[in-house]
Amino acid sequence: MEPCISLPLEKSLLDDVVAQSKDFANVHGIVMRRRETPLSSDVVCFTPHTLVPSPVPKKLFYQSVDVQNDFHLLMHGISRDYQFLKSVLSSSMQHDEFQKKLFDIYEEVYINNIPCQPIMLGMLRCDYMFDCSGGRDISTDKIQLKQVEVNTIASGLAGLGTQCTRLHRFNLENLGKSEIASSLPESKAVGKMAEGFVEAWKLYGNNKAAILFLIEELSWNIMDQRWLEYEIRNLDKSIPIIRRLFKDVVERAKIEDNKLILDNYEIAIVYYRYGYSPEHYPTEKEWEARLMVEKSQTIKCPPISYHLAGSKKIQQELPRAGAVERFQKYFPDGEVTVKRIRNTFAGLYTLDMNDEGSETALKNPNIYVLKPQREGGGNNLFGEDIKTKLEQIGEDKSRAGYILMDKIEPLVVTNYTVQSEKDVEIRKMVSEIGIFGAIISNGENVPFNSTCGHILRTKTVSSNEGSFAGGSAVIDSPFLV
Length: 481
Ligand code: ADP
Ligand code: MG
Ligand code: MG
What we know:
36% helix, binds adenosine-5'-diphosphate, alpha+beta, binds magnesium ion, globular, ligase, 16 helices, seven-stranded antiparallel β-sheet
């Protein structure tokens, strides 16, 4: 795919544009704490980024945007379907303590009808790649949008992603490409997500109550969260916003009159930017705290039912006949919505006993990705590692905790990456687009359903996982072709 400018750039021009790109990023808050000092904002650094936007097929970009609200409704429907969640997650739960504990909380709260909060807040990010396994010709329908996953908890990068378009416009202008600069699609992700928070906060109905950002201690990506916090403040300065660790909730939060109280604040919304991984729950106390929050009247973002609906095991189930259709009553466009959703699915296979998934994968591991039920990047297996893993697991029932997915053969682009203390070189890279969205549900009803904006993350072709958190991907923005 042709880049949006002719590459390579002449050395002195490149040096100048790169230096300006770093300064612009620093001036405009496209920054992170340094990995060496994740507890301190004394010294921060621009966020690693591509120098210019990477090409994205226009049709696929709009396809990903157009299906976003549908996915919110699908997740909403799943979150309300106890039988579906139970039957799909039952096999993986048997051997996955983490998944089981999440489900136990869900079950205790929802089945026992504990009075809690009917209003739910979801901040989602659906991720996709542009699959070229059918051919690389952009002028045909051969390149297809394929969903990598739906994130229903701690979906980050709306803050930094929103600013990246601004940065790329500036760089393109410096390269004399103002026309391309003005044609880039706007991402208003962080502002629109903030609107979701404000709406949910109003529905809670106490103008003294706070929004709690539940965060991790080593917050090297804190500025991304700050962007969201400040956008909420821009919309309504009266909303108290506090940031606390899970540990603080464990130690000091309490329930009074079914309300969640922490440090003298009544909490209107708990926004989890943490709590999605087993190591976030080192003792039973963290589980007790999660249960306490879930039972309380506070609005959870996400509630545990949304967290479970975003499981990879659920993703694997959805392509099966009837699975998406089961939730059709939630879709205003009925079958048309079902089709829009289904069109984004990659091939997904179960590794449950008696299924053929693992045999198929052993024969040809290079065309699959093996995924455990985990979040946060760095967990998946590719190629020969799939074989080793499957042979190691053998017939053990823990196999059901994994899903097998067709490996997407992504569109390859060329771009420069701007990273601290690294040479700026032209690299062959692949992109993953993330579409942000916000949903508020109140029982069956969905009073707020909003597609918020996008982020592109781009990684070198050679790295299998494009984790931004792990340092192998950089932020980017789409140039539509
Ligand atoms: P996580 O929840 O940990 O982010 P993902 O499902 O997003 O898990 O996988 C992590 C990364 O692995 C993705 O960002 C992508 O780079 C790569 N990946 C995941 N699924 C596929 C796939 N089917 N084909 C190719 N690469 C994939
Ligand atoms: Mg994820
Ligand atoms: Mg991911």
